[in-house]
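Structural biology now treats backbone shape like a language. To illustrate, our science desk offers a sequence and the tokens encoding its fold:
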Amino acid sequence: METHAGPLPHPHILSGYEELIPGAARTILDMAREEQRHRHNMENRATAYPYFGMGLGALCLLSCIAGAVFLAVRAHGEPVGIALIGAPVLTGVGWFLNARLAPPPGAKGSSNLPVTPRQKNPGL
């Protein structure tokens, strides 16, 4: 009895392809190599995507704060600056608290709030 497992055909089957169509074995190996390269690229992107989003969110928050400080100091006085700085800061604080204090999905009494990244992947 002989068994084989893996993404490529058994070497005997691969040699059979090569006998029928010269160059077929090389084509199959190249396809497997390209598929592996593509899969690794997609996994790397999926790993980096949350960090990219967090960095972009932090950049947006800092730009809102900088704009509010500029408007408060240079142009329109304190009320406009406080209003502009309050919205992004309160949103960020609310998301942070929701991510850490929300019950796990499916828990008794849990709400229908959107699932945060921390709830989707507790390892974050």
Notes: The CA atoms of residues 104 and 119 lie 7 Å apart. DSSP finds four helices and no strands in the chain.
